[in-house]
Amino acid sequence: MKILVATNDSDKLILFNSALKKLGHHELVSVTNSYDAIYKSRLEKPDLVILDISIEEKNSPESAKHIREIYLGDWIPILFIVNFEAETIKKIIAAGGDDYLLNPLDETIVLAKLKFMLNLYELRLKNEENMRKFGVLSAMDSLTGVQNRTEFDKSITAKINDARSQDAKFAVLSLDIDHFKMINDNLGHHIGDLLLKSVATRIKKCLGMDDFIARIGSDEFSIILGEIDHPEAAEKVAQKIINGLMTPHNLANEEVHMTCSIGIACYPVDGENPKTLMQNAEIAMSHAKELGRNNYQLFAQELYEKRKNTVNLEEALKFAVDREELFLTYQPIYDLQTHHVVGMEALLSWQHPSLGLISPNIFIPIAEENGLIDSIGKWTFRSAFAQGAKWYLAGYHQFKLAINISPRHLLQKNLPALFTEIIIKTQVPPHILEFELTENASITSSQAENVLADIHLLGIGLSLDDFGTGYSSYIRLKQLPINTIKIDKVFIDNLTSNTKDAMIVKSMITLGKNLGIDVIAEGIETAKQAEILIEYGCPKGQGFYLSKPLSVAQMTEILQQQHNTKKS
Ligand code: C2E
Ligand code: MG
Ligand code: MG
């Protein structure tokens, strides 16, 4: 049995070590905090997790939930070490803890509890074996009919034994469907399930007699390519699979388009045991995702180090809201003709305890991919609405507050209800608010359009961010109730040097005027750029030349100054 202990108290580790020795041959993996516990759980898949939340304040009961997610519904016993406090004990029960040990640890009690957990574990193994024997627990994934994870573990172990004895090579592929969550949310779980079946069938068509395929996560497949002498041979199969999956899938009268990302690890160079091989194939797959998805990548050692950092970031992000590590800055938006501040954009930042300031360009994509964007968004909306209300109630009425919104938010039906609740609570007048939408395919789904229409009805404005860089900007103007377009920085960058860019900017300004839509030029960095924009009649601007994003206090000061000059 493998036991993971998260504590930064070395005395406790010594105690666990000696207790486990008394109980037979068991493996102890130790980490010092709950971030690492989650990370290690993913890598090592322990059979028992012990979390010490009594010392390190940052170790939260919530980590139990994240660890459980890793086990995809399989039970994993989690034990907490706590001080005797009824509140904490209630919290760990709510977070799904199975039992607890009280400080100070007593060796007899620790031994008894560990023994109990070991017995449970053995009982469970026996039970599973019996179920398998009687055919209750299938070796197959019930949805797609390919092998499941347990069976795949056996296949890969057997494959390694064969290859080792024959000095042979083979490859492991890790395949993940791109944006599967989005497909599921957009088209429904029924279509999601049909797509998984279709994917499994198509992959099988690309495989040979010596190959295996298994579904090992919700939209993750693992493949063993049996006879591979060179990585190039594996690359060929990967490309064949990618091409095969790209042809639209006809599912219950829906034509579904999808792509996938694949990582390749080769035995023995990229790993000599099942765990390392699968982990490295997954790392290569994540790299393929970073490179824009819809491609395959071979594993390389330097990817391992890089991956470690991202995983840590992802785990840390899970706690960022609770630990109040997120904060908003406000970048002023100016009327270019009068040079008055007429609004501001709320920009999210993350102050990581050890890595320092992390840009939204790094953490928002991670949050969008793993779903954390929902809670991060809620926090952002609450904070920004509340700040807008404060400024308004302080007597500053001449501003619009812009807030960025992720396309994923628009897939939540209850979003307008949430906004209504925050508006009532904060007393913010909805007309001072404007949501900035970046162009993205998903904002045309009917679900997203309904949410946008509801937001419009609430009186909140809509702005198209990074205008001109999406692939169908003009269609959006026609389809959605847009109040403002923000000309992307890439056009402003070359305003003074490239006549084509200058003409594009000029026509965007005219377009806005003709449609009765407000125009903001983004990313103004020089006086010259501002000058040209003024000459073209661009109404508003934002950029480092005018002002960098500011703290609440600095922003308030500007509003105050402007308010005073107007009065006098
Ligand atoms: P964006 O909405 O286009 O925001 C403008 C970004 O450009 C900000 O970067 C801002 O600091 C930067 N910027 C402004 N003026 C200049 C300039 O003159 N020169 C240069 N080089 N940069 C300038 P930031 O804060 O790093 O945000 C990056 C992106 O992250 C935003 O782009 C937005 O797409 C996203 N983002 C920021 N906050 C949020 C949020 O609360 N929710 C969501 N979903 N996305 C957010
Ligand atoms: Mg923006
Ligand atoms: Mg922008």
Can you describe this structure?
The chain has 568 residues and is an alpha/beta fold. The protein has 20 helices and 21 strands. The chain has an eight-stranded mixed β-barrel, surrounded by five helices. A five-stranded parallel beta sheet has the order 2-1-3-4-5, with helices on both faces. Helix 1 links the parallel strand 1 (2-6) and strand 2 (27-31). Helix 1 (10-22) packs across helix 5, helix 2 (34-44) packs across helix 11 and helix 7 (180-187) crosses helix 8 (189-205). The longest helix is centred in the N-terminal third of the chain and has 27 residues, at 107-133. The radius of gyration is 28 Å and the shape is globular. The model has no long low-confidence stretch (mean pLDDT 90). The structure holds ligand C2E and magnesium ion (2 copies). The site of one magnesium ion has 4 residues, from loops.
Keywords for this entry:
568 residues; alpha/beta; eight-stranded mixed barrel; five-stranded parallel β-sheet; 20 helices; 21 strands; binds ligand C2E; binds magnesium ion
Bound molecules: ligand C2E, magnesium ion
- How many beta-strand runs? 21
The general outline is globular
Contiguous runs where pLDDT drops below 50 for at least 5 residues: none
Measured between the Cα atoms of the first and last residue, the distance is 77 Å
Radius of gyration using CA atoms only: 28 Å
Number of discrete helical segments: 20
User: Structural class from helices and strands?
Assistant: alpha/beta
Average pLDDT score: 90
Strand order of the largest sheet: 13-14-16-17-18-19-20-21
Largest sheet: 8 strands, mixed, barrel
